[in-house]
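re: the backbone from monday

yeah here it is again, tokenized this time
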């Protein structure tokens, strides 16, 4: 029988006792019992989404004159600009408007009531959850509201009756904290599944109380909604969304974590002996400051203290304790908050204690100076190092079922080594590489099979011989798939990533064309740094009918010049891998419309279009709402 115990209002104000230091610290949920002005998360904040009309801090009289101040004129409300397409705000807004319905949305916009919240900050309400957003929050229609309105609440599930407290208002919706679950969804919620003591406070995970099969189905629906909301394509052009590819590991999979910490506000500017003229001031009388080292709190721009991340690999959790202790010892050397980097790596043949946390020697933990710790957990630039080394015991370990010892890399400039199947990759620790190594072989295999799969309509199609890996990074797809092609080209804007890709080609015995023997099949793999607007200039000699293009862009997706090059080049097949399915859906829709327009503009030219063969999610981050997505498109002639 499922364990459906649900935290009460008191339980959601989580109090955590650290095990490594023995000193009691609390994960404070100030919003549940303090009348402070709340701060919303980056995904929910900003001028384009959140609007608070409260202005209750006007003084009753002027302290200098004793006279009542002049009555302030009410400020005219200025509508915020729309959110960036495909951003978290934009996704939430589409989910909210979809739940309200087109008629209600149109009526509210006509009456200019889309920002007129019927709820006040701090107001506590009871709701019945309607559904989950694509970002993992629950969506509830506000009952008996004069304005069509939705309330977003984290950690609640469809069908549940909950109590929530509002902390901000936005367009068509309010943001609220979960106070308690009055009636849980017994079929979905099982708190016995939760493995993290910080769940419900930390912003990292949303789905630990759900079965893994339920998580995979939710992510399939996210892909489906993304194409319905963002592609602009008619339903008959969209295939059924395939089941989400699961991750072999659902905990202990994350190979990179970036804990943050901040310092006491009164300490800023007086570190490292600077501002000596203020040294005589009694700083001990200042308000006590609890040093917290961890991750962002859900719905707040502040850090909660975290000693263990259950979705991180074991070697990273072993290294986290001494890393925290090092920060605590050296906190007075920092002028502002910083971010640590801990990255799982296979031990390289030339590894030394200088760049790895091992039991054989010390390590300098590289820290990044930041001004808003929770705002970003993936900053890549190293800007400072503590001078005191840290000895990290037992940070090197063999993991069951995996070859080689794993170490924790803490220097942004040090080299990380990973294996994907039989392929080896090395790259700087501060650069991008997928953070769940366990699922990468499944991703590569799926892309390979999608490229070479044949259907009845492709019976006479020519087998692809050329591969273009755009946004190639350190060469994951180009190198992994190179044995299946004659000629491979990787293109990337970052020169450093291209250098890593070339080195990885050598590591995997894939020499460039210039070193190949003329007596063998003239295979080649080349990597070139180039901008997206001229990315196909380097492969203009590739035959389009024999060429596959892989697209793996950053979250913002592709720009129009890149898509226009695809329309001009017209490779036989496209495989679009994305960490943001919403911008992927937008780009795929734009590409199909551009192909249609090109057919109208080019009289006498054979009309062609891309057909979406398959759409599928990949679970790169179990226990979270994030889903990677893969779209496979094939070039077809247009009949008639």
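seq for it, each position gets an aa:
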């Amino acid at each position: 029988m499922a364990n459906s115990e649900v935290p009460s209002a008191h339980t959601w104000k989580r109090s955590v006792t650290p095990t490594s230091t023995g000193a009691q610290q609390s994960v404070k949920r100030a919003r549940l019992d303090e009348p402070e002005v709340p701060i919303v998360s980056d995904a929910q904040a900003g001028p384009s989404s959140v609007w608070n009309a409260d202005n209750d801090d006007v003084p009753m009289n002027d302290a200098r004159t004793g006279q009542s101040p002049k009555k302030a004129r009410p400020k005219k409300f200025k509508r915020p600009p729309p959110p960036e397409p495909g951003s978290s705000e934009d996704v939430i807004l589409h989910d909210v408007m979809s739940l309200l319905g087109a008629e209600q949305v149109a009526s509210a916009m006509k009456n200019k009531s889309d920002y007129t919240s019927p709820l006040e900050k701090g107001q506590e309400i009871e709701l019945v959850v309607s559904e989950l957003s694509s970002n993992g929050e629950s969506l509830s229609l506000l009952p008996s509201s004069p304005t069509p309105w939705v309330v977003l609440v984290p950690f609640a599930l469809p069908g549940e009756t909950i109590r929530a407290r509002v902390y901000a208002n936005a367009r068509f919706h309010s943001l609220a904290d979960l106070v308690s679950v009055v009636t849980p969804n017994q079929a979905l919620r099982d708190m016995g599944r939760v493995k993290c003591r910080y769940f419900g406070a930390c912003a990292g995970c949303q789905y630990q109380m759900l079965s893994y099969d339920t998580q995979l189905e939710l992510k399939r629906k996210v892909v489906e909604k993304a194409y319905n909301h963002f592609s602009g394509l008619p339903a008959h052009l969209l295939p059924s969304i395939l089941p989400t590819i699961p991750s072999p590991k659902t905990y202990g999979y994350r190979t990179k974590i970036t804990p943050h910490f901040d310092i006491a506000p009164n300490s800023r500017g007086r570190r490292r002996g600077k501002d000596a003229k203020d040294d005589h001031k009694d700083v001990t009388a200042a308000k006590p400051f609890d040093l917290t080292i961890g991750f962002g709190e859900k719905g707040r721009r502040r850090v909660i203290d975290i000693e263990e991340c259950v979705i991180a690999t074991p070697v990273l959790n072993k290294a986290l304790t001494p890393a925290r202790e090092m920060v605590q010892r050296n906190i007075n050397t920092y002028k502002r908050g910083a971010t640590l980097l801990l990255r799982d790596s296979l031990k390289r043949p030339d590894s030394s204690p200088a760049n790895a946390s091992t039991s054989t020697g010390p390590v300098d933990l590289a820290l990044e100076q930041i001004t808003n710790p929770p705002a970003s957990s993936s900053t890549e630039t190293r800007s400072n190092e503590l001078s005191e080394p840290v000895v990290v015991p037992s940070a090197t370990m063999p993991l069951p079922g995996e070859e080689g010892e794993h170490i924790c890399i803490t220097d942004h400039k040090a080299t990380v080594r990973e294996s994907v199947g039989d392929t080896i990759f090395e790259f700087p620790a501060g650069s991008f590489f997928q953070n769940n190594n366990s699922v990468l072989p499944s991703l590569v295999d799926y892309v390979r099979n999608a490229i070479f799969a044949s259907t009845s309509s492709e019976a006479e199609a020519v087998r692809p011989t050329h591969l273009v890996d755009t946004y190639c990074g350190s060469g994951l797809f180009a190198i992994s798939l190179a044995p299946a092609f004659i000629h491979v080209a990787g293109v990337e804007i970052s020169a450093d990533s291209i250098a890593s890709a070339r080195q990885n080609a050598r590591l995997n015995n894939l020499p460039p064309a210039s070193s190949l023997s003329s007596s063998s099949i003239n295979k080649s793999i080349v990597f070139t740094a180039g901008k997206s607007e001229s990315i196909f200039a380097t492969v203009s000699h590739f035959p389009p009918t024999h060429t596959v293009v892989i697209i793996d862009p950053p979250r913002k997706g592709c720009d129009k010049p890149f898509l226009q090059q695809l329309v001009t080049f017209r490779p036989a097949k496209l495989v679009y891998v994305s960490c943001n399915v919403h911008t992927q859906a937008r780009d795929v829709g734009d590409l199909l419309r551009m192909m249609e327009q090109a057919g109208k503009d080019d009289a006498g030219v054979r009309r062609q279009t891309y057909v979406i063969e398959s759409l599928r999610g990949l679970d790169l981050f179990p226990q979270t709402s994030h889903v990677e997505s893969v779209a496979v498109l094939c070039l077809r002639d247009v009949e008639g």
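The first strand starts at residue 124 and ends at 128. The radius of gyration is 27 Å.
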